[in-house]
Structure formats: C-alpha cells, structure tokens
Design a protein that fits this description.
The structure holds two protein chains of two kinds. In chain A, about 70% of the residues lie in helices and about 0% in strands. Chain A contains four helices and no strands. In chain A, helix 2 runs antiparallel to helix 4. Chain B contains 19 helices and no strands. In chain B, helix 1 packs parallel to helix 14, helix 5 runs antiparallel to helix 12 and helix 7 packs across helix 15. Classes of the chains: A mainly alpha, B mainly alpha.
C-alpha cells in the first residue's frame, strides 16, 4: 500500500478481490464472531437503559423508595448502576476485541496485503 | 442553554474572570501556533491532524469536544433544581457512548477518510449521498453551534457582568473570532490541543469542587442529599425521586422517554464526534479513544451529580432560581460558596474555554464536510487539480464563513429561548445520521435510495415536528414570569404534543431507510459492499497515519 491510499470509492487496479475474501470461511467466521458479540450486547444495554427511563417516567413511587433510612433512593441506585454497567461493558468489549477479535482480523489483513488469500 | 439578562453573580469579579480567561486564550493560542508549525499543508493534516494522535490523547479531546457548557452548567443546575430528572441527561449522554464503541467507531475509522460522508457514500452513488450527508452534517453543526454561541452571550451576562446587549454582542464576536483563529491557524491539530487542555481543566476543576463538597459533609452522599432536600425549594422531597420536571402527566412522561431515546442514539451520529475517530492511526486506537472518553465522561458526570446536590445543599434552590441565569448559575454559585471570588473566576474561565473548544470542533467539522463532500465530490465531481491546496483553501474559507454566520446567529439568538437547539441537534443526529450509518455498515441490501430517504426523511421529520411542537409555540404563559416558555410569544400553531421529536422521528427514519431500499429499482453494489465489509472489519486498505511511514 502506498501511504496515500486511494480515497474510498476509487477503483484501483491492484486491489484484492474483496468478494473472494468476503466469501472465505475465515472472514465469515470473523464477521459472525463480531456480530454475535456486539448485537446482543447492544440490545441488552439498550433494554436496560430504557427500563431505567420507563421506570423513572411511569413508576416514580418505586424509584423514590429510600433505602435503609438514608436519603439514597432506588432511582439513584438504578442510575448509578447504569454507570457501573457502562464501565463494565466497555471493559468487557475491550477484552473481547483485544483477545478474540484483533488477532483474527490482523491475520486476514496480512493475507490480503500479501495477496495470499487469492491463491 | 439559556441564561437570563441580569446582573452578574454576586461576588463575581469581572476583571479577575476576564484575566483568567485571557491567560487561557494566550496559552492555548501559543500552543496552537507551535503545533501548527509541525503540520504539513495538505487536507489530511488540516482535517485529521494526519491521523497522528494517540488513543488516549484523542479520548481526552473527545471528552473536551463532548462536554459542552450545557453539560457542565446545565446538568449541575438541573440536578440542583430538579434533582433526579437532571440525572437522566448525564446517564443518556454516557450510555450513548456504548453505541459508538460497539457499532460505529472502529468500522468508521477503517472505511472513511475525513468525513461522515466518506462512510455513507462508500458503496452508494457518490454525489447524491455525499450531498445528503453534508446537508445533515451542516444542519446538526449549525444547531449545535448556534446554541453554544447564544449560550456564550448569556454566560457573559452571568460571569462578566456585562449587561448591555452591545457589550454581549462584542463578546460573542470575540469568541467567534478566536474560534476562527484556532481553526485557521491550527486546523484539526490545533483544535484538538485546545480540546485536550480544556478537558483537563474542566475535569480537574469539577473534581476539586466535588472533593471539596464531599469533605464538607464528611464524604456522606446521603447526608448531602438530605441537606439539599432540607433547603426545601419548590420541589423539596421530589429532589430525590423522578418526576419533578417530567412527571406531571401522560404527555410529559412520553416526552421524557422521547428525550431519553434521542440522547442515547444521538451521540454516535454527531458529525463532530465521528470526525474525531479519523485523527488516530488505527481502528484499535479509535477503540482506545472511546474507552478513555467513556471513563472521563462518566467520571465527570458523577462529579456533576455531587455538584448539583452540593449546590442544592450549600447554596439552596431558591437562591439559584433568583440568580441571573437560574439553573445555569448553580455551579458558579457553588464555586463562590466554596472558594470565593478566585474559584468562581477559575470556573468561569473554564466555562468559557468549554464553549470555545466545542465551537472550534464544530466549525472544523462543518468546513471539512462542505469542502470535502460538497465542493470536491459534488461540485467538482472528485476532479480537483492540486487537491492538496484547493481543498484546504475551500475548507479555510468555509470556516471563516461559518464563523461569521455563527457570530451573527449567536448575536440574534442571544436572550432567545434556544435551549432546545442542543436537543434538536441530538434528535437530527439520531434520526438522520445514525440509521443511515448502521444500515451502511451492517445491511447488505441497503441502497442509495434508502440512504437518501433515511437522511432527508429523518432531517425533514425532525425539523417539522420541532417547528410544530410546544417548544416553538403554544406553551401556556407562566404566571411568575408573564411569558410563555415557548420560543415564540403570543402565537400557537403547535399540533405535535411532545417537546422532543425522537420517539417518532427515530423509528420513522429507520423505516424510511428500509422502505427506500426495498422499493428501489437499483440493487445494492455487491462488490462495493464486499470491499466495505472486509475493510471495515479487518482494517485492510484503511487510511494510514502520515506518521507511521
């Protein structure tokens, strides 16, 4: 690759055959690996967030319950748990990406860049 | 963000505030001039600093770009006055980053070059899709920019004690001129450094105040909240439970959900945030930058929670409400309560720095989108001779034009109720941009027509719903102020019941993108999709950093 790679949309003559790469079992496995991780997780955190929003909107009584005689309410705990879950999902995803995604993605990229995959 | 025109915050020393701010400007300008000497003259350097920032640097800059004055002053104030409801903003703004982390950041870095349009037009017909992407980028940037500039006017009234409209207009013009200077001199490299410095100041400042407040109550959050409640403001106990602001009836409850949806889906469609992912060399660094941003933004919002309740407890909601600027004065008043005139001056300067850094980021994004998408690819059909210089020249001129428009818009909007503009920017980003980005990246069959329908459809629906919402006209007159909270007084043409259009406009845009695709005569370009998918996941052929060769 040159340092100034062609802008997206340009068709160059020395590009790899992207469709062949896309059809390869390695790439299919890579795609499945990513989608199986991020799609359910996205669904889960969106549902968890919307649950919080809906409860705050439609069950204010429940969210206002004070815990153990303090001024800390169920709603505050729920809100703080949203922070905790966001930090946890971030950490989890990075672990997944570093260990289970990047090595496979890099292997395919090297094959593309050295032209091996078109054998 | 809206601040009333009245006398400055009590105890504020305008000369001290201006001096601290001037020191910030001098230091950042010096840094911008220094880093710009290292820059080469090309488009790549102007738009993305050559992709040469590290993940952590970019993460700090992202938080500097994202944490606007509205989130600092507005959220702390909302928590002080409305308690729990103010908390929703920070949670929505934070959780939204997971969408960017899991679905957008890395794939975008691998397929694009400078703008959102690069990714959306990747496998589509270039001209129409780029024109649409640029339209939406300019719309979002304009709304966001206008809100920030008008906010600057209010902030002047609050912190510098400049009451005359002329005086405030001059300050808005100075802010605009500084913003143009940062962008012209430093490009993305300089803008990024301004954002990094501002983010550090803002987060450290908020952190010091948080520890200070907590030490006063013996690190007992429950006790702090009890103090906030015992200052029985207008809402009293409700500070601890949801509904102080949104719980009135069925409509306001739906509004709350609509707002929550736009907040969580808007961030990953904000063009000035997306563009930041191109300033790092690889997708892995883009991932690291989001991780840094999530931690910094999350911690900052936890600070604002303490600051909000702290202002409620130590200053009291009644004092805050009576102060010029109302809710927005909570954090400055708390600073004065804690550290007197000096701390207030520091916090005031940080708030100014915040506006400056955010508007600079918006300006460079809008000018890049115009020069790269509209000028080069739509008008010149990609046939620009001497691409390097021509494109940057157009971008620089656009930045000047945008700066002038922002100054004039800010002066006109000064004192108007334009608080809804930031929410509008998020609603457009969530409706027009995010569905199109997700379809482009993940849906094989997505076509040019689908992209155009979801972008233009999402933009149009959002704008129409806002214009005919109670935000613009028809809210009942508030007995206390004698004015309607709507933007326009004395007319009522609203028919859409909600303040926030997201609940309708976001699903509608997803649907339009789907319908546009299944109804189009053209089939999706399979070869281009193969290229986009392989490149987005593996990083093969991705735009390289100019530093790593």
């Amino acid at each position: 690759m040159s340092t100034e790679s062609p802008p997206p949309g340009d068709v160059t003559t020395d590009h790899p055959d992207w469709e062949t790469v896309q059809r390869s079992p390695e790439f299919q496995a890579l795609r499945t690996r990513l989608r199986r991780f991020v799609f359910p997780l996205t669904g889960a955190f969106l549902v968890w967030y919307l649950l919080y929003v809906v409860l705050a909107s439609y069950a204010p009584g429940f969210m206002a319950i004070k815990i153990g005689g303090s001024n800390i309410t169920v709603g505050l705990i729920f809100g703080l748990l949203q922070f905790v879950s966001t930090f946890a999902i971030t950490t989890w995803y990075v672990k997944f990406a570093d260990r289970k995604f990047d090595p496979h993605a890099e292997a395919i990229r090297r094959e593309i860049e050295t032209g091996e995959i078109e054998r | 963000m809206i601040l009333a025109q009245a006398t400055g915050v009590e105890g504020s020393s305008p000369i001290l505030n201006i001096s601290i701010f001037a020191i910030f400007v001098i230091i950042t300008l010096a840094i911008v001039i220094r880093v710009s000497r290292k820059a080469s003259s090309g488009a790549k350097d102007f738009y993305t600093a050559g992709g040469g920032f590290s993940g952590p640097q970019n993460g700090i800059a992202i938080s500097g770009d994202y944490l606007s004055a509205a989130s600092f002053l507005g959220i702390a104030g909302a928590i002080a006055l409305y308690g729990y409801d103010g908390f929703l903003y920070s949670i929505g703004f934070l959780v939204a980053w997971l969408v960017a982390l899991l679905l957008v950041a890395e794939l975008l870095r691998n397929t694009g070059k400078y703008t959102m349009g690069d990714v959306l037009a990747f496998r589509m017909r270039q001209r129409p899709v780029r024109a649409a992407a640029a339209t939406s980028t300019l719309a979002v940037s304009f709304f966001y920019l206008l809100a920030q500039m008008a906010g600057a006017g209010g902030l002047v009234a609050l912190l510098l004690d400049i009451k005359s409209k002329t005086g405030q207009s001059i300050v808005i013009a100075v802010v605009g001129a500084l913003m143009i200077a940062y962008v012209l001199i430093g490009g993305m490299r300089g803008t990024t450094w301004v954002q990094i410095i501002k983010a550090v100041l803002l987060i450290v400042g908020a952190g010091v105040m948080t520890l200070w407040v907590l030490s006063l109550v013996g690190f007992n959050l429950s006790g702090l909240m009890g103090d906030a409640v015992s200052h029985v403001g207008s809402v009293g106990e409700k500070l601890l439970s949801p509904g102080a602001q949104y719980g009135k009836n069925g409509t306001t409850r739906l509004d709350f959900i609509s707002l929550g949806l736009a907040l969580v889906l808007g961030t990953a469609g904000l063009p000035h945030i997306l563009m930041r992912f191109y300033t790092v060399p690889t997708a892995k660094e883009a991932r690291r930058s989001v991780v840094w941003a999530i931690w910094l933004i999350g911690i900052f919002y936890l600070f604002t929670l303490v600051l909000g309740y702290g202002a409620g407890a130590l200053v009291g909601p009644d004092t805050i409400k009576k102060a010029p600027g109302g809710a927005n004065s909570a954090a400055p008043l708390l600073a004065y309560e804690l550290g007197g005139t000096v701390l207030l001056g520091l916090i005031a300067a940080v708030a100014f720095a915040t506006i400056l850094a955010v508007v600079a980021g918006l300006t460079i994004t809008a000018s890049a989108s115009f020069a790269h998408d509209i000028y080069v690819n739509v008008i010149k059909r990609g046939q620009v001779q001497d691409e390097k210089n021509t494109e940057v020249k157009v971008a620089r001129r656009t930045a000047v034009v945008i700066g002038i428009v922002a100054i004039l818009g800010g002066i006109l909007a000064n004192g108007q109720n334009i608080a809804f503009l930031v929410a509008l920017a998020f609603a457009v980003a969530a409706s027009a941009n995010l569905p199109t980005i997700l379809y482009s990246l993940f849906w094989k069959r997505f076509t040019t027509q689908g992209a155009l329908w979801s972008i233009y459809g999402g933009l149009a629906i959002t704008l129409v719903l806002i214009v005919f919402s109670p935000v613009v006209s028809g809210k009942p007159v508030d007995a206390a102020t004698g004015k309607s909270p709507s933007m326009l007084q004395g007319v009522d043409f609203h028919w859409f019941p909600l303040d926030n259009p997201g609940l309708v406009s976001i699903p509608a845009s997803f649907l339009l993108g789907f319908l546009g695709t299944v109804l189009s005569k053209d089939k999706a370009d399979k070869k281009k999709y193969a290229e986009m998918e392989v490149r987005s996941l593996t990083g093969a052929g991705a735009e390289k950093s100019v530093l790593d060769h």
